[in-house]
């Protein structure tokens, strides 16, 4: 059976048989918008929807990844909650320069942002709409920042982690509030034409939170997000950074998502624990940045042989990653039978 790129990815997310795994790079935290691509555009690729859509198309064309994904950063949601953002340039990624709140109560005191009107959210929605109008057979992946990572982009992370212990109910209330916004933003992205929503929560690691806090503060929010996304008919991908091995039992409670892991996680062992849950990953991004194409091909081959459902970079890609290495990865997957 011949699959379009969209049909193949949607089939995998629905746990159906395909000819081979898709090879994707979702966008958001896991974006392939490298300097080699961005330098061909004006510096408004984070704020102009037309340019953003063109960059997404250029990424697919110049790397071979089988999707279109926007945005190319993790600062969109924090900005609408008052955090100051430096959008950077072709050689520097956007970053938070000032937190939007000094206490938890200040986050909830703000009116809940409107994804259709506030900050750069409308830019993302317009870019998705642009892409959807031009690409029927290519999956469009929208991206949102996970609740913990969003919270620690609005308020000082060290203070936030302290409050997890001192004021857990207040923390849960804030996370629930932020998740309500993220649900709205995700739903708006699907309405604009996104086929899949990728949720990246790099701060919600086992190393930082520990297993008990992960179960208490993270699982309910991610479960709600995935459930709400599923109700729209779109697919969901959840990426957890770091060594998520100790979190696998908890991650089983998130029903309806494909789980994406960092390179430190043994995906074969993860699959054993997770059973029928599709697994995505986890090509080492340092190797993609500085390694030889032959090593990348070998890494991809090992993942394919293990039956990993979706092949993708293990985490965020360096802006300096050579296109030849990304092409080596995508060609290796496309040529596998």
UniProtKB/TrEMBL annotation:
Domain Uroporphyrinogen decarboxylase (URO-D): 5-335
Molecular-function GO terms, alphabetical: methyltransferase activity; uroporphyrinogen decarboxylase activity
Signal peptide stretch: none
Source domain of life: Bacteria
Gene3D superfamilies associated with the record: 3.20.20.210
Cross-referenced Pfam families: URO-D
GO biological process annotation, one example: porphyrin-containing compound biosynthetic process
Keywords (A to Z) from UniProt: Methyltransferase, Transferase
InterPro entries: Methanogen_methyltrans, UROD/MetE-like_sf, Uroporphyrinogen_deCOase
SUPFAM superfamilies assigned to the protein according to its UniProt record, in alphabetical order: UROD/MetE-like
Protein name: [methyl-Co(III) methanol-specific corrinoid protein]:coenzyme M methyltransferase
